[in-house]
Amino acid sequence: MVQRHRHYYGEDPSQWGELFLPDLPGGGAHRGVAVVIHGGYWRSKYGAELGEPLAVDLATHGMAAWNLEYRRAGNGGGWPHTFRDILAGVDTLQELAGPHVLDLAKVVALGHSAGGHLAVWAAGRGRLPHLGLEAEHREMNAKDDGVRLTGVVSQSGVLDLAEAEKLNLSDGAVANFLGGPSSEFPGRYRYADPMAALPLDVPVFAVHATEDEDVPLAMSTSYVEAGRSGPVPARLVTVPGDHFALIDPGSQAYRKCRGLVQELLR
């Protein structure tokens, strides 16, 4: 039996998450939380319905799952609001921990495509003040404290924004998301790029589908290569299938991701 509870973390209609909780036999606390961050190239026509089947599956397998919605480009998101929402949505777990008996010692993000970008970016929040980009940090109003992710499973994540812009992925999705080209907003691009926050001190599994035609494998391989010398090197994991096999709970590709989330929560 899975319970579900919707909570808002802001006044915008897109600032909410849904907490999926498995039954706790004999009481106790839910040990860790998986934060599900959906993709869709940061565009408003794609929403948290993409992450719901994953959150249900994780809860069915005994894990508390927080399916996070956020403002996207086209409905009040983009720079800097999407980034603020991701951090605020993750930090809301502090308020939910008591009422829902959550143990936040382990908080792991599972992010698909653009959600993979946001998940890995959020894992680097502690590195953001050290990028030397004070104007961007002020514009973000970013808090340096809050709930820290203890691991990430990126599912064909857009982890190299500079290369994604060069490749013009999804018809200029990066420029659409960040409000213009990198030539106009170089600091904004660096602040938003997970590559800039390397090295991280938390584990990242960069899972990528071998037949993915939406996000090139290079998005994951370049990230893993760049972080190879860090204290906790990211790991590349390839799985069979296309871009959407990763969010199909019945697929081998997704089952691998679920296993990695379980590993990180243990």
Automatic annotation (TrEMBL):
<dbReference type="InterPro" id="IPR049492">
    <property type="entry name" value="BD-FAE-like_dom"/>
</dbReference>
<protein>
    <recommendedName>
        <fullName>BD-FAE-like domain-containing protein</fullName>
    </recommendedName>
</protein>
<dbReference type="InterPro" id="IPR029058">
    <property type="entry name" value="AB_hydrolase_fold"/>
</dbReference>
<keyword id="KW-0378">Hydrolase</keyword>
<dbReference type="InterPro" id="IPR050300">
    <property type="entry name" value="GDXG_lipolytic_enzyme"/>
</dbReference>
<feature type="domain" description="BD-FAE-like">
    <location>
        <begin position="31"/>
        <end position="222"/>
    </location>
</feature>
<dbReference type="Pfam" id="PF20434">
    <property type="entry name" value="BD-FAE"/>
</dbReference>
